[in-house]
Amino acid sequence: MIDPHAPSRPAAPPSWRGPARLPVRPDTGRLLVLACVFVCAACGLVYELELVALASYLIGDSVTQASVILSVMVFAMGVGSLAAKRLRRHAAAGFGAVEVVLALVGGCSALALYAVFAWTGDWGGVWGYGPRCLLVAFSLAIGLLIGAEVPLLMELIQRIRRQDAGRAVADLFAADYVGALVGGLAFPFLLLPFLGQLTGALLTGAVNVVAGGALVLGLFRGDLTRRARWLLMVANVAVLGVLAATAVLVDDFERAARQAVYGKGVRVALQSDVQEIVLTGGTHGRPLDLFLDGRLRISGRDERRYHEALVHPAMNGPHARVLVLGGGDGLAAREVLRHPGVRRVHIVDLDPAVVRLARQDPALAALNGHVYADPRVRVSTGDAFHWLRRAPTASYDVVISDLPDPGITASAKLYSQEFYGLTRQVLTDGGRLAVHAGPVRTRPRVFWTVEATLRAAGLRPAPYRVGGDVTGFGAGPDRTASPSPVGHDWGFLLAGRDDRPPLRLPGAPRLGTLTQEMLTGDARAAVRTRVPGLAASTLVHPRYTR
User: Fold this and answer.
1) Is 382 left (phi over 0), alpha (psi -120 to 50) or beta?
2) SS3 of 58, please?
3) From the CA atom positions of the chain, what is the Rg in Å?
4) Which residues are annotated binding-site positions for S-methyl-5'-thioadenosine?
5) pLDDT tens-digit map of 31-62
6) Residue 409 banded pLDDT, cuts 50, 70, 90
7) 280 to each of 257, 285, 292, 294, 297, how far by Cα in Å?
8) Mind telling me which residue stretches traverse the membrane in this protein (predicted)?
9) Is 488 helix (H, G, I), strand (E, B) or coil?
10) Looking at per-residue confidence, does 479 or 149 come out higher?
11) Could you read off the pLDDT of 359-382 as tens digits, one per residue?
């Protein structure tokens, strides 16, 4: 008979609250948990950066993509931390399962997103909402899994040796933040340049699953039932096998995806330190196309119409010394050299690989007229903004700005008031600046923002446009080069240092297909699209949006 007045014994703590049965000393076990925190944090940040980089590459507008991905991930991490409280009784098994799923999802995320982009087409059109939702879904899933890691690891480290919660949290987050630093540095300096986006993500997933599996199956195996150990072991081996097999086949996948994106005529495909460069066609009568980061930059079908309109109006006047910003393909320089009296052409391009290709590729060199063999042509490689800061004042009669569309975030600073202020300084008195400002019909707000920015920099711009082929190049920030229902065009601005220059072609001999009548008519058409009241774009307040 139980005496109701007898003192009651305290209930034995549940097994998940008791000390863990470790095969090593507690101090060693604690160090191993912190090492796992370090590795998992590094892998988690690589997944985040991989999604940001891939989204910026596939969609464009890197600021928007980074903001969406990181905000969704941080939100999901909070939700994941709350959800992980339900797994605290089974912290070891729960952490092992989280790492298996995270390694699979994170490791294959870049592959899945690139496959959807390659085989479904435009991310910016109507069908683009599906892939964009997939991008958000990956961000959400990876954030949930990363958020679930910390509470489970906190439980595991406390099971080794109970300590003050503040000290435990400090140790855990110190390892987490240092791991994030290593992952953040490894992505741009090791994984991306040496392995590429797809293989880099797969390797990160493999490291992730090995670290998580080793911690749970090696250190905390005593907390698992025999069935749980076998399930986790099989899951880890299976995920590691999937990642390894995918890494072996990734080159074949990239070739198939590249053909889906660019067609079967890919002749050159290389990843420079700056961008992906792809050349298609140029042989057997097929027009040459040059793609930079997936955007059609040059099309042999109608590039002459573009470059003639960009260059020839600016050459009406003194033009002995000409500066070409961008234009590493040599096509703008080709049009410049057609004018008598040119003594020097200086090309400043960001990517030396483009310049090298323009020199050495037979089809591209033939298209640019072998301009790099001309002794009048000089080349500098580097950022045009920083190059202008060191350039001598009043040293060029003409500046040709042959740069990517302003709607692309990376190009926004090259269409800023500060940039045009530097350009104005290198122009001689009476010098002229020709700017490619994107399509007028489809993005008039962007075009007229460039015009407002030129005026704010003290230049006097004259707008004009020229129609292109229905598949015209110079795709905007959404990467599209598809036919537009209102037709494709290129917008230009011819600006003078002191006065607004007249839109007139140089006198005889006539060069190219552009006529004065066409130029005058297209200038009137451009003026009719004017968007009034736009502010200038600056470095701290870029205003180029789609």
Assistant:
1) left
2) helix
3) 30
4) 275, 349, 383-384
5) 999 999 999 999 999 999 999 988 877 776 67
6) low
7) 14, 12, 12, 12, 12
8) 31-59, 65-84, 96-117, 129-148, 169-192, 198-218, 230-250
9) coil
10) 149
11) 999 999 999 999 999 999 999 999
Whole-angstrom distance, CA of residue 158 vs CA of residue 167: 11
DSSP strands (E only) in 216-275: 266-271
Distance CA 492, CA 236 (A): 57
What are the distances in angstroms from CA 106 to CA 90, 453, 483? 23, 42, 35
Instruction: Please provide the average confidence, as pLDDT, over all residues in the chain.
Output: 87
Q: And the tokens for 334?
A: 């080709």
Taking Cα atoms as reference points, which of 302, 325, 267 lies closest to residue 473? 302
Instruction: Please enumerate, by residue number, every residue annotated as part of a binding site for spermidine.
Output: 307, 329
Q: How far apart, in whole angstroms, are the C-alpha atoms of residue 508 and residue 426?
A: 28
Q: Which of 100, 110, 102 is nearest to 57 (CA)?
A: 110
Instruction: Kindly give, in sequence order, each residue whose CB lies less than 8 Å from that of residue 540, ignoring residues fewer than 6 positions away.
Output: none
Count of other CB atoms within 10 angstroms of residue 137: 13
Tell me the C-alpha distance between 59 and 69, whole Å.
Answer: 13
Helix, strand, or coil here: 25? coil
Q: What is the pLDDT of residues 97-139, one digit of tens each?
A: 999 999 999 999 999 998 888 887 654 443 345 567 888 999 9
For residues 398 and 430, the answer to whether their CB atoms sit within 8 Å is no
Residue 159 CB contacts under 8 Å (≥ 6 apart), including other chains: 16, 17, 18, 19, 20, 91, 223
- Whole-Å CA distances, 532 to 451, 455, 493, 500, 501: 11, 13, 16, 19, 21
Is the bond leading into 509 cis (omega within 30 degrees of zero)?
yes
Q: Cα-Cα-Cα-Cα dihedral of 134, 136, 137, 140, to 10°?
A: 160
Q: Hey, CA dihedral for 322, 324, 329, 334, is it positive or negative? A: negative
Catalytic residue among 397, 402, 405, 522: 402
3-state secondary structure of 434: strand
All domains of the chain, ordered by start, with CATH? 16-261 (1.20.1250.20), 301-527 (3.40.50.150)
Place of tokens 């004065």: 516
Return the amino acid letter for 139.
S
Residues belonging to the binding site are 275, 307, 329, 349, 383-384
Q: Is the pTM of this model over 0.70?
A: yes
Q: Is 402 a catalytic residue?
A: yes
The whole-number pLDDT of residue 469 equals: 55
Query: In whole angstroms, what is the distance from residue 510 CA to residue 531 CA?
Result: 34
CA neighbours closer than 13 Å in the CB half-sphere of residue 53: 23
Three-state secondary structure call for residue 123? coil
